[in-house]
Amino acid sequence: xxxxxxxxxxxxAGTLARGRATLLLGARQTGKTTLAQRLNPDMxxxxxxxxxxxxxxxxxxLLGAEIESRPAPAKRKLPLVLLDEIxxxxxxxxxxxxxxxxxxxxxxxxxxxxxxxxxxxxxNWLPGRLVPLRLDPLxxxxxxxxxxxxxxxxxxxxxxxxxAGDAAREQDLRAYATLYLEEEVRAEALVxxxxxxxxxxxxxxxxxxxxxxxxxxAQELGVAHTTVAGxxxxxxDCLIAERVEPLTQSRTRKKLxxxxxxxFFDLGVxxxxxxxxxxxxPRVLGGLFEQFVGLEFIRLGRQAQPEVHVxxxxxxDGPEVDWVLTREDRCLPIEVKWSDAPxxxxxxxxxxxxxxxxxxxxxxxxxxxxRRFQLAQGIVALPWQDIPAVIExxxx
Length: 396
Known about the structure:
The protein is α/β, with parallel strands linked by helices. It has 2 domains: 9-134, P-loop containing nucleotide triphosphate hydrolases (Rossmann fold, 3-Layer(aba) Sandwich); 138-396, no CATH class. It has 16 helices and 13 strands. Helix 7 packs across helix 13, helix 7 packs across helix 14 and helix 10 crosses helix 13 (267-274). It is globular, with a radius of gyration of 22 Å. The model has no long low-confidence stretch (mean pLDDT 90).
């Protein structure tokens, strides 16, 4: 399979050049190991393999002894050590800290779950020593844009999009959903009732992109709403769901939505978890298009310097804007329309937002038009293929 260059590569290389260790987080099969291996580590351990994991669980100090006994590398000052899925053996982090402090080795740690990083009370996650980076599925800036249908149905995981044929991709996507349940949830004992969580996963995939209503899902599942909130927390911590917060400050409106939206990190995995086929009606495709645009901005915004954040704006009794890019004292409202020829009426909520927010000077309608064009005063209609340019212009 041909290697695809990633946006985070330069930041990873730059971090190591400054002598810092890196924690590379990303969901399974986003390409973390492939990316790290391109830096030619002197030693690599993968803790997904049970025999490797058990060896260091029994004797964490073995890691230090093995590294210190290695001959000095020929082309760098310190040996570079890659530890894959480090959250599976958290006891090793203390050993890693000691080796970093004594300048014995440099490290790339990868992980597909941030749960222990965020919540483990006894786990030492090396504050001030690790530079955290994120590897997401492929962005439009990292690959030649495929058809929009492929973006919405297949998603953007490197190992999935490189497979030839819809049937093979379908098989791999459904295997991914099963793999996640078996290896990420069951192995870490995050829930007691895996069948119940499996049903939640399907419902959450179907509800992806909507305003979160924990109580409605709780009634559907027959559980407490706090259980549903905990399930969403698991998806977020295991990097399967993106939590998008609303903009809630307003000089004129008192009833802005305060509940977040959750997006599945990849639309192909979302469809597999929802147990949907490839033949979807335009109404559903329009909703997926909105999610696709949001995910692209989230992924590209993470790699931007300074980072660009993604929010949304909604008055339950009035206007709403699908996505709002924010940084420092600036924001950019964005509407998403399935149309290939949006009209001025499609920009009315953007006009309201621009009138009420002085930090926003223009708005965008992302659509299926072949070329950009002026839609209204201060509002431009833009083809979806131009999304990467939006981030560059916003930072400029």
